[in-house]
Design brief:
The complex is a heterodimer of chains A (about 170) and B (about 100).
Chain A (H helix, E strand, L loop, with lengths): L1 H22 L3 H21 L3 H27 L13 H23 L16 H10 L2 H23 L10
Helix pairs in contact in A: 1-2, 2-3
Chain B lengths: L4 H21 L3 H26 L3 H31 L13
Chain lengths: ~170, ~100
């Protein structure tokens, strides 16, 4: 029963953080809302016995990625709150209707097909320790793991190239 | 009442839809980017929940790869945003229309 209670509390926290992220005018408030949601998702990983993924979630997402986001927000976006007037007047209601419809379709279709038979906390739960994840990662999925090395190298090179790229000031067009 | 993986998938679907609404509604490029991160996170939750329901470790391996790709995407995307901001001094996507003629 305690698992259901923890899930309910952190589900509400996650959805609340996501709504704060979407609706806050100030980008820093959006970042804090997303941070709350990411910590809640780490709690869900612990509930699902995925301890290594939970640690990675906190270290990489809540640590590195959100720090990078806050860094860039402080650099380019914090001083002015967003102008909320829409260029296309019907875009916002259409977007909300589309999103609610998407959620409804996924929930209705998924309730027919989801794996609902087994208990998460029964004997057939997955062992998510570092050892178990590493066995799969360096055994079956070695090639995929090595290709992420190339991906990260390319990303680092691309970031350095973007940092050295100095665009011309657009004064000639305005 | 038992807590099955379906509950986590339902929550992930709701979070995914909220992230999609953020991409469609907001005009600040940074907040749109954060919404995309939220969508990636909810998909990760679906992977891990499905792996637990099926008794497979591969769900967690897939989530790990998604995290790696998302980290690479964040570095590149934020570098592009900073470069755009240096040229145009705005993060509003409505004003970044120089390719639109």
């Amino acid at each position: 029963m305690v698992e259901v209670f923890v899930f309910a509390v952190f589900a509400l926290v996650a959805i609340g953080g996501a709504l704060v992220m979407v609706m806050a005018r100030n980008p820093v408030h959006s970042a804090i809302g997303l941070l709350t949601t990411m910590f809640s998702i780490a709690v869900f990983y612990v509930l699902l016995n995925a301890h290594f993924i939970a640690a990675i979630q906190v270290l990489i997402y809540a640590g590195a990625v959100m720090t990078l986001f806050l860094f860039v927000i402080m650099m380019i976006g914090v001083d002015k709150t967003e102008d909320t007037t829409e260029q296309i007047p019907w875009q916002r209601p259409i977007a909300i209707v589309v999103s609610v419809g998407l959620a409804a379709v996924i929930l209705i279709a998924g309730s027919q097909a989801w794996i609902t038979g087994r208990s998460v906390f029964g004997v057939d739960g997955v062992n998510g320790t570092i050892e178990a994840v590493a066995d799969a990662l360096f055994g079956t999925w070695t090639l995929a793991f090595l290709s992420t090395v190339f991906l990260l190298t390319i990303a680092a090179v691309g970031t350095i190239a973007m940092a050295q790229y100095l665009p011309r000031r657009p004064e000639e067009e305005s | 009442m038992m807590l099955t993986p379906g509950w986590y998938m339902a929550l992930a679907a709701v979070l995914f839809s909220i992230g999609g609404a953020g991409v469609l509604v907001r005009r600040n490029a940074l907040v749109m980017f954060m919404s995309i991160e939220l969508m990636l996170n909810s998909v990760n939750l679906t992977f891990v929940a499905a792996g637990t329901g099926l008794g497979l470790i591969e769900g967690q391996v897939a989530a790990l790869f998604v995290i790696v790709v998302a980290a690479a995407e964040v570095t590149i995307g934020l570098a592009i945003l900073v470069a755009v901001f240096r040229g145009r001094a705005t993060a509003n996507v409505d004003e970044l229309s120089s390719l639109g003629g």
